[in-house]
Backbone:
């Protein structure tokens, strides 16, 4: 009897302990479930994401210049009925399937839609538009806008990512995760449309002038406008352009439209006569140094032709420069000597890459070494810009600017500053300018270039208002297309002549000549700058 009572007592105690354990477990699970429901009784809908801004020098946005409507919808009978009544049939069919799900969604609308129950509308910005400018320097991102793939977007990717933001809606949900119809969602702004980003040296108004003028180029090429005194890049176009919405087309094509030609090296041609003239003057060779051009000149066993086959006749340095006489400059180059000529070429930046901002540099171009020139024929070839001499439009801009600004070599730059999310600005430090030729030499070259536009090969570049200076070039490439030799045509100059503000470099791949293919583009830009009040 005592044994049976002990078993019963023991069983009761065991049962009670077991029941208590289950009760504690049940309570803990109930608390866990309640906590889970409370922590997930809302749904976050991403309405729009933004990336750091890119501005021109006047703080005018170069991205997010176009807007569209984004509609946020909480699926319900009310929202479905309303949108069916205000959207066209095709648009409604695109979103109809989404009403079968319980989660809110967004869609883009090309027209304004009034808000209604469970329907909210936002004016959101598009990073790129069809009419966006300065594409090659700005570059482009991946579709998520999280990674820059070229240009400033790539070079300053971390800065632009730090200034990214997002606009969200927080919807109330029931225990099953369904949004509560009729309950206004809460707007959540996570650094959305931050004003932080990168400020470029580009002037958007000048950029538009240059992009319109570039349409006159009959072929691929580039146009570059820089500040003559500082080197700041005010505008830049590379042709052909690319469409950000169809990057794959550019990748698969043979037109190298993603290439920024302002950063690429080309044969220099007669633009180099600026350097040759400067080297001669620095060596104290007088401008009266003369040569009678008969249409060709023989150096050793090699005959070099002038572009004017009947010859220019008697030339001094000024008239030979203006008429781009090759035999004259061959004689001049031989008189200067390879050491002096190539030393000045290097001093003026050719053969060295140019850093226009953090993480963007141009091609170094090329100049022959002194030791590689062993014969007069080799020096003769270089003296009028042929052979292995190659430079980018940025290098040419440096050379022209030095002649126009009194002899100082300026470094082309693309960025003025960066701005963080708090509005703090950090200015980009440009390299100091350095004198590469005496002022009197620069003034003489400047005079040669003005005479080229008024009376020489550059007459087609003469602006309607005020004078300009410049140099034509038609560089042989050694390439052939359809059996014809390809020429890189250039016109490089400054405007206005009296107090140069703008250095303008125009390049046309496979052009007829600098005078025919490029000089009219230069003239158009000068005229439009004057008309728009940009000339002081």
Residues:
């Amino acid at each position: 009897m005592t044994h049976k009572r002990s078993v019963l007592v023991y069983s009761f105690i065991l049962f009670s302990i077991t029941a208590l354990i289950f009760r504690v477990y049940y309570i803990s699970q109930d608390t866990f479930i309640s906590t889970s429901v409370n922590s997930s009784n809302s749904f976050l809908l991403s309405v729009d994401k933004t990336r750091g801004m890119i501005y021109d020098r006047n703080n005018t946005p170069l991205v997010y210049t176009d807007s569209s409507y984004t509609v946020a919808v909480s699926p319900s009978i009310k929202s479905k009925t309303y949108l069916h009544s205000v959207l066209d049939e095709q648009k409604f069919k695109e979103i109809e399937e989404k009403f079968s799900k319980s989660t809110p969604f967004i869609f883009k609308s090309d027209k304004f839609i009034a808000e209604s129950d469970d329907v909210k509308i936002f004016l959101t910005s598009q990073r790129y538009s069809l009419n966006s400018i300065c594409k090659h320097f700005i570059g482009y991102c991946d579709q998520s806008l999280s990674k820059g793939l070229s240009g400033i977007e790539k070079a300053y990717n971390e800065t632009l990512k730090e200034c990214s933001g997002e606009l969200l809606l927080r919807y109330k949900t029931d225990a099953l995760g369904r949004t509560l119809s009729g309950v206004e969602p809460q707007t959540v702004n996570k650094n959305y449309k931050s004003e932080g980003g990168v400020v470029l040296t580009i002037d958007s108004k000048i950029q538009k002038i240059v992009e319109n003028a570039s349409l006159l180029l009959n072929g691929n090429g580039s146009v570059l406008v820089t500040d003559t005194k500082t080197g700041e890049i005010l505008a830049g176009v590379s042709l052909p352009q690319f469409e950000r919405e169809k990057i794959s087309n550019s990748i698969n094509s043979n037109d190298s439209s993603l290439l920024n030609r302002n950063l690429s090296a080309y044969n220099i041609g007669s633009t180099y006569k600026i350097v040759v003239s400067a080297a001669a003057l620095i060596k104290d060779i007088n401008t009266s140094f003369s040569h009678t051009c008969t249409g060709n000149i023989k150096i050793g066993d090699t005959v070099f032709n002038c572009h004017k086959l009947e010859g220019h006749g008697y030339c001094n340095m000024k008239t030979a420069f203006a008429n781009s006489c090759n035999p004259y400059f061959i004689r001049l180059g031989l008189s200067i000597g390879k050491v002096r000529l190539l030393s000045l070429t290097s001093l003026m930046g050719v053969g060295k890459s140019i850093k226009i901002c953090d993480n963007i540099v141009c091609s170094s171009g090329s100049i022959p070494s002194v030791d590689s020139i062993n014969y007069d024929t080799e020096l003769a070839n270089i003296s009028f810009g042929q052979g292995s001499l190659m430079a980018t439009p940025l290098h040419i801009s440096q050379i022209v600017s030095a002649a126009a600004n009194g002899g100082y070599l300026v470094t082309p730059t693309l960025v003025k500053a960066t701005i963080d999310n708090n509005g703090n600005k950090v200015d980009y430090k440009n390299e100091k300018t350095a004198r590469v030729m005496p002022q009197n030499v620069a003034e003489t070259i400047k005079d040669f270039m003005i005479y080229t536009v008024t009376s020489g090969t550059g007459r087609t570049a003469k602006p309607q208002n005020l004078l300009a200076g410049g140099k034509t070039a038609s560089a042989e490439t050694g390439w052939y297309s359809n059996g014809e030799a390809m020429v890189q045509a250039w016109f490089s100059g400054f405007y206005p002549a009296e107090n140069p503000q703008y250095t303008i470099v125009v390049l046309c791949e496979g052009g007829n000549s600098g005078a025919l293919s490029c000089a009219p583009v230069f003239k158009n830009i000068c005229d439009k700058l004057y008309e728009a009040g940009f000339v002081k």
About this structure: The chain is about 35% helix and 25% strand. Confidence is low (pLDDT under 50) at residues 24-39. The longest strand covers residues 469-481. The CA atoms of residues 67 and 125 lie 4 Å apart.
